[in-house]
Amino acid sequence: MIDRVSPADTTRRALMRYALAAGVAAGTAGLPSASAARFPAADGRRLVRPKVARLGDSITQFAESARISGTAVLHRRTRGAMTWVKTLFPAYNDDTWHHPEDTRHRRFLRGSNNGVAGDHLTYLGPENPGTLRRWAEEVAPMRPDVVLLSVGTNDINSYLPATAIQRDLRRQIGEITGTGAIVIVTTIRPRGAVGRSAWAAPDQASDVRYATRRAVNDWIRSLQSGRVLVADVNAYLEDPRSRGGAGGDWLPEVAPPDGVHPGPPAAWAEAQALLPILRTLIRDDNVYGEDPAEAGNLLPNGAFVGTSGLVGWGARGHCATGWAISRQSGDAWVEAYTVVEDGVTKQVLEITPGYHDTTFVLRTEPRLLPLTDVEVGEWLRFHLAQEVSAHAGWLAYSPRLLLARQDRTWSMIAGALETASGERLPEVAWSGWPATHPVRRAPEDAAVACSVLIKVAGGVPGRPVLRFSRAQLRRVPDPRVAWHAVTPDTNRHGLVPPVSTDLADPVPAERLDAGYRLSRRDAQ
User: Fold this and answer.
1) Which of 35, 169, 187, 300 has the greatest count of CB atoms below 10 A from its CB?
2) Host H or E run for residue 280
3) Which CA distances in Å does 318 have to 1, 325, 376?
4) pTM score of the predicted model
5) Domain of 393, in residue numbers
6) Which residues make beta-bridge pairs with 337?
């Protein structure tokens, strides 16, 4: 169990514990209550539903991993912080979609996600052209309003000197802001002592890469000015007591199995560095829509009213009309019931874990909804409101959209909130709007199914609870238009992020004692 920070616990580990234990009450989006207002700005200066592009390496790319098979599955995991940010603060255009014909850099992805595994800042080869080149050729023509730049770990891993990396980053940042866009630069994450891609040297003196990373991160932290913002994600991830007190390793609470790519807890922690910045830039909004009764919702009962739904094996109680809950594997039980809070009906699932990992599925009933009203070529997205209690055993609570084809195969578009083998979702409470990627109806698609995959680990005490409401399956505009259109740069250069004049730290003083560095401080 991760405890809240106590006055005596003043290391950076305490900072991480606070981030993981803070939880998310409705409307706070994962931050302590004062943090949402940490950087005040007039609404007229905030961006309204901007395009946010991500540019980087495998840490960016594998936030959405396209797995190509006979059923063309697009599977998304919580490796990337933006997965959490988008779920907790869905106020901007972050669309990514599966593009099986696009074989560039082995990605099969288009849209916001512009990560390429193994990429450096500069050119290595056709599969790794470098972020500088890809910005000019692929990303800049899409005219993003905000760019999240997360690159440099591979350059350091290749033993490039800090001066060369700083030079290339300076050029990259200048080219991005030169288009009028705002750039959010992240500090470079740790490399673990174990794992396939770790830096396994026993101390920093024997491996120059640690000193390079420290020098580059110190330089990045000095960049905060104008349209250049700094998200110090490393402050939430690095254990300063590791390697003899010189730092460089991950905090044990968030250390990923391979030593490099963030897992769900690390992604959640990174989101705490990004959310205040994005809330400063972007007007609070919901790009998905919140009212299931608005015209165009293809789900028969997105409001979860009624109690005549199907309660299958491993479940008891009642399920909303037009929905079904059942256990697919394992030995846990779920108590299902509905409640009305503030005029909103919610489907509640209260789980009693068993001895083994267990999978439940909440789905529409009937399972398949015909696509008679959806034209071939139209795009669909499934989203809903979701509230999650803190529990150490969460393995998945992810929305899924499945298209049934005439040949009885499936095309699945998965939501964000699942884990790989050996991983756990963070032990936090939160509320937000998880959603699938947009998917285009193909000629062979005959029906659609919407569901939520729920997994809990066996042998973990406590009764985890999920609440679902306001489910919607809607047509969405063709995302290719927004991301491929070249728009004028009029007034873009005049947009400078608001700067806070309130220097009071909004969270407990012990975070300051831990050496917490404000991610939006004045330029040094």
Assistant:
1) 187
2) helix 264-281
3) 32, 9, 36
4) 0.83
5) 310-483
6) 348
